[in-house]
Amino acid sequence: MIEIPEDKLIRCPICEAVNIDKGKKNVCRRCGSFIYKHSVFSTEKSWAYLITAMIAYIPANLYPMLITKQFGTVESSTILGGIVMLWEQGSYPVALIIFFASILIPVLKFLVLIYLLISVKYPLGKDKRVNKHKLYFMTEAVGPWSMIDVFVVAILAALIHLANIEIIAGTAATAFAISVFFTLLAAHAFDERLIKENK
Amino acid sequence: MKLENEDELDSLILCKHCHTVHKEVPIKDGTKACCSKCGAVLYRYDSKLLDHGLALSMTGLIFFILANLFPLVKIEILGHEQFITIPRTFISLFDSGFYLVGLICSFLIFIFPLMIFSINMLIFMLLKRKRGRKLSKELLILLSHITPWNMSDIFLISILVALVKLIGYAQIHMGMAFWALVVFVLIDLYVTKSIHVSEIWMLRKRVFLDDRNVEES
């Protein structure tokens, strides 16, 4: 007979089996993978990925995302420029989708992750109005959608390469892909157990 | 909370969204259990999970192969015809020197979806034949590592967005692979929604537990 308080139960991030939190080294009893083994460097890994992502996000917005070569004239547009162009052309839904995917979601995700990472270390937002588990789940679910813009550029570049008209991906595509990749890594590296400890 | 032993932890469930602890109760075939706090689905019970899973993953795999073999969209621009397939999308990125983006894209829209469905099929086949206790475990762990990186649904939306950008410049014809991709994404969404990794783990436990009992008796 074991007696454990309810908040000592943790979920394995790999196989989702319920485990008992034994403190330092937790190995999942079902799949054998470590459940956040770094107890000393609990948030540092996530911070590192997040900062990399934020740095990559700066050139992603400054450099051109899409370069259009049309009858000798070269036109390049950044992410924001592309959205404005779409809006002016009247394709509002698409402009909104791109705006959500490549501006709003990444920025919100940065902010939420920063908030979560700070709040598990320092007593911030201790009121229980915000369910941090839910917040974390939302960022995880919504994160991959930022890749839309990179895919769109890849499709356009693959589709249009004629002698006179050509679309090439810009430097921002690489930067943006890296940024999204690292935000996803940062979210995965975040130790959900810490939310519980600091409730 | 009192427990007999560690195995009894299997009857507990933590809500994926809000981390509330629940005790698993038997439910009717084909129904689902929801979290009492936030309403998210906790688990489903499907007595034919094995057959359903196998059928779905095989169908998905067939549609994925179709989606990769045929052109996705064809456009006519200034009298020229151009088409793309899924592999050509990322190969053209390699051609134009975007190795990193090409690599990321090829994994997200080609390698991972292919792997997920092959692994699913393999797991269900192993469980059906009651073999590969260790292999199925390794495969399940691999599966949960790569599932969050499958982005074929996002790729589908991206195709539509790209086409909207081309309206007015070119004539657009949907290819056969596009419809195959739509079906694949629908199956993919259905599988990720209805067959949860933890359900496959439970199934695996049941399969090999029965097996052990038979051997002993």
Count of distinct strands of chain A: 6
Domain count of chain A: 2
Helical residue percent band of chain A: 40-55%
Instruction: Provide the low-confidence segments of chain B as ranges.
Output: none
Q: Low-confidence stretches of chain A at least 5 residues in length (pLDDT < 50)?
A: none
Form type of chain A: elongated
From the alpha-carbon coordinates, what is the Rg of chain A to the nearest angstrom? 21 Å
- Please state the overall shape of chain B, judged from the principal axes of the Cα atoms: elongated
- How far from one another are the termini of chain B? 35 Å
What average pLDDT do the residues of chain A reach? 82
Total number of helices of chain A: 7
Q: Let me know the average pLDDT of chain B.
A: 86
Tell me the fraction of residues in β-strands of chain B, as a range.
5-15%
Query: How is the main sheet of chain B built?
Result: 3 strands, antiparallel
Largest two-chain interface: A-B, 61 and 63 residues
Structural description of this entry:
The complex is a heterodimer of chains A (199) and B (217). With 199 residues, chain A is mainly alpha-helical. Chain A folds into 2 domains: 1-37; 40-197, no CATH class. Chain A is 54% helix and 12% strand. Chain A has helices spanning 44-62, 79-89, 92-121, 132-142, 148-159, 171-189, 193-197, and strands spanning 2-3, 9-11, 18-20, 66-70, 73-77, 165-169. Chain A is elongated. The model of chain A has no long low-confidence stretch (mean pLDDT 82). By secondary structure, chain B is of the alpha+beta class. Chain B has 2 domains: 1-45, no CATH class; 63-216, no CATH class. Chain B has helices at residues 49-69, 86-95, 99-128, 133-146, 152-166, 176-194, 197-216; strands at 2-3, 12-14, 21-23, 32-34, 41-44, 73-77, 80-84, 171-174. In chain B, the strands form 3 sheets. In chain B, strands 7-6-8 form a 3-stranded antiparallel beta sheet. In chain B, strands 2-3 form a two-stranded antiparallel ribbon. In chain B, strand 2 and strand 3 form a beta hairpin. Classes of the chains: A mainly alpha (199), B alpha+beta (217). Chains A and B meet through strand 1, strand 2, strand 3, helix 3 and helix 4 of A and strand 1, strand 2, strand 6, strand 7 and helix 2 of B.
